[in-house]
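Agenda item 2: magnesium ion complex prediction
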Amino acid sequence: EPSLLRSKFRGSLLGALIGDCTGSPYEGETITAGEKIIIQRYFDKLEEPNLNLKTPFRAYTDDTAMTKSVAKFLIDKPEPDYGFLARLFVNDYFKEPRRGYGQNVVDVFHKLKTSKFEDVFKPAAEQFMGSGSYGNGGAMRIAPIGLYYHNNYKIMIKVATQSTKITHTHLLGINGALLQCMAVQQALMLDPQKKLDPRHFCLELYLKMKEVEKTEEDGEDESDFTSRAYQEKLKVVERLLGKPHDDNLDDEVIRNLGHGISAYESVPTAIYCFLKTQNESCGIMTDNLLRRTIQYAITLGGDTDTIASMAGAIAGAYLGEDAVNSSIAKHCESYKEIAELADNLFEARGGS
Ligand code: 8NA
Ligand code: MG
Ligand code: MG
Ligand code: MG
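Presented output:
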């Protein structure tokens, strides 16, 4: 159904935007029980239709800046052009450097510019003495690829991998981006009228990740945790989903899944946030499933904008635009532009 699909494109990119904008004030924080109540009130207030805030909007950060570039990369060129994508990233960064970019990625942008984009994969591969970045910057911007290629899994994986490699070449950085991309795609394929089965969703991702981690490197060496990292993390997600909510569970989630700036400590967490909040007794008091996912992600603290943005992209791809509270959306910078971008991405696919 084309109108549902269009709505899901909008839901996903708006979910990503709202997670970024509402999460960024808490980035790097530890969230106490008292602060969880403040965050609940903050969202309640944002939902008021005629709210007049002193600051009319919440600014977006690097997460959204780079997601916009990935969407444009898919919209403007019929075939993936990674030189074009690298230029979009770099131009955006030099236009607005104060969006909260990671330190390593800024370094890569300078090298790309200085080398005149001669080999767009080289600067990232040289970072961290050749091991590459395992930050979550590849994953945080991947949603448009999961949406655009939702009908073509193989190409989706290829384009997600290559686009990530412009900034992140560590296996954990790439596979984290692939996992996030798969989660968005899988959520897009679901019927929003039907209640989803969190453990089944997780198992499906586990099987796909097992396939990816098998082909990427020879997984024979059990001691090499990077080659099996995400399938192991998804087992932890599955186990945690089986536990009833209480306040100590959040600490266990943070300890076992993480809430950091590495892909490894944030992508499985974002997926967990999405799946846990399908259950109304998850500790977050709202009927709006998209808000529930984003708000829960923020209450875990740490890399709040990025984890909430990734969780919001997955939830929005499942639920569509109907789940986007328009009062909350209009407090986010560029929400109209993001909705248009989602429409353009939808149209750019042609007949598929
Ligand atoms: P990135 O590629 O710069 O990675 C982020 C950081 O992770 C690096 O600056 C390093 O400190 C560390 N790192 C990554 N790979 C390695 C490695 N191989 N060895 C040692 N250290 C490594 O940036 P990104 O694009 O991945 O962005 C990740 C996060 O940073 C995002 O949340 C983004 O918003 C940004 N950020 C986070 C915070 C925060 O407090 N959580 C604050 C500002 C910016
Ligand atoms: Mg605090
Ligand atoms: Mg950010
Ligand atoms: Mg962040």
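Discussion summary: The longest helix spans residues 2-23.
Owner for follow-up: CH.
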